[in-house]
Structures are given as structure tokens and as C-alpha cells.
Amino acid sequence: MTRPADPDTDDNPRCASGKARLFVEGELRAGAALTLDADQSHYLINVLRMGAGDGALLFNGRDGEWAARIAQAHKKHCVLELTARTRAQEPLPDIWLLFAPVKKARLDFIAQKATEMGAAVIQPVVTARTVVTRLKDERLQANAVEAAEQCGLVAVPEVRGAAKLGSLLERWDAIAPGRRILFCDEGTAPGGARAALERLAGDGWRGTPLAVLVGPEGGFSPEEREMLRSRSDTVALSLGPRIMRADTAAIAALAVVGLMLGDW
Ligand code: SAH
């Protein structure tokens, strides 16, 4: 998977712990040896200027986080030996982000920030006023992986293929049974956010699977707004009197949910 060229990462190539962290596909167990692909080998050896004996942290989303040492510092197929598990596998908060794709740079931004804000699923949705419809899923996934490495996660959100909002919601009970939707609605009058969140929580925040829905630059159509507001599993939320960019709204809504879920 090609790492996105992220200026922050290149300036500050390590995560908060100061150690290089890499998401890998292979099984992680004591004594195992793991050969990195050319992209990740280049990153450790050429970008981070690491060499034989240097340590890194690996995670695969299943086996927790493992400390590893470079056994062969090869620029194209670096070999790492796993030494010890440093963290157990932890689930991501059960939050999905449904968002209407926006222009490329901001799309990368949304994938990164949704990951940092704890989203478990990143689901692009095509709405009536969505302009961008061609999406490079692998690019979004690469941004989510990069953000997970940087922010100390041991799992990576699942980036799904784009789906039409209407058909997704028609199948919602089958796709996401019991998952309630926080509909960020620029058409809802400000001032009712706390009451809306209480309604969303219903019988309690903990354990309630949630989805945050954010529209495109052009906003939701009146028909979409009417459809969403008529659903019993959906609560419309105003994020205040200012119209935010879609990516800002996604972060703001995920922050509110994170606070209410007690994830902070
Ligand atoms: N063009 C629209 C704004 C779209 S902003 C207009 O001028 O009304 C893109 C998306 O961000 C919206 O569809 C909504 O999901 C979210 N958003 C932006 N500002 C918001 C607010 N104040 N309250 C709730 N959602 C908001």
C-alpha cells in the first residue's frame, strides 16, 4: 500500500511514542520474522534512516501491538524480528462516519481525522448533491492506515466503497442493526444539540452503535432531509449557527460523539 505523502509525517515521522509504528498484514507472534514490502522498507531505511538493530512497533488490527527489531536493513525487503507484545488488541469505538465525498485533498483529510477521532468504519455516501463520485478507496485506506500508525491505534478503520445514501438506508437494518444515525443537518435550527444527543442516546450511550452522517458541499436536498428526519433511528443535529465545511463538520460531530460516549 503506497504511503500518502503527508508533510506532517515527513517532518515528524514518528508517532507520539517516538517509535516508528507500522500497520502490517501478517500474523504477529513471539519470535516471528516479518519481511516488509518495498514501500515500508523504504520508509524505515531511507526516510527514518533506521538500521539493523533499531526497533519499531507493529500492529495488524488482530494481534495487538508488538515490538520488533530490524534483522536485515534491506531497502526493498527489510526483515523485522518480533520480540514482545507491547499492547493487547483493543476494539475501536463503535462509531461509523457516513460522509459525502468532497474534493481530493479534503477527502484525505477526512479519512485521517475520522481515524484520529476513533471512527471504526468510514463509509462514503453519494447524495443528491454529491459532486465527487469517483473515489480511490485504496487512497482513503492508505490515509486511514497512516493516521492509525501516527495516533497510536492498534486497529485501522474499515474504509468501505461508496454507496448511494438512499439504498444504504433502505438496507440499514440489515447492514447495521440497531445503529442509530446522528444526522448533521445544516437545516436544523441551532440550540437543540444537547436535547438531540439525549434523544440519540435513548437508553444510554455506552454500547449504542452510532453513525455520524455529513453531507456534501451542496448540503442535503429537501427530499433527503425529509427522509432522514422521518426515520426513528435518526436524530438531526445542529452544529451551531455557522455553516462548516463538510470535513470540519465531520470532526466536530465525531468530537461530540466521542465526548458523549466517554471515550475521552
Ligand atoms: N451548502 C450548504 C452547507 C453544506 S456544509 C449550505 O450552504 O447550507 C456540508 C455538510 O456539513 C452539511 O451537509 C452538514 O452535514 C454539515 N454541516 C455544516 N455546517 C453544519 C451545521 N452548522 N450544523 C449541522 N451540520 C452542518
Helix content: 25-40%
**Overall pLDDT metric:** 90
Distance between the termini: 31 Å
Q: Could you say what the CATH topology of the largest domain is called?
A: Alpha/beta knot
Radius of gyration: 20 Å
List SSEs in N-to-C order: HEEHEEEEHEHEEHHEHEHEH
Percent strand: 15-25%
Q: Ions, cofactors, ligands: which are bound?
A: S-adenosyl-L-homocysteine
| Multimerization state | single chain
Largest sheet: 7 strands, parallel
For the record, the CATH architecture of the largest domain stands as 3-Layer(aba) Sandwich
Q: What ranges have pLDDT less than 50 throughout 5 or more consecutive residues?
A: 6-12
Helix-and-strand structural type: alpha/beta
Shape label = elongated
CATH class of the largest domain: Alpha Beta
CATH H-level name of the largest domain... which superfamily? Answer: SPOUT methyltransferase, trefoil knot domain
Number of strands: 12
Tell me the number of helical segments per DSSP (H or I, 4 or more residues long): 9
Number of domains: 2
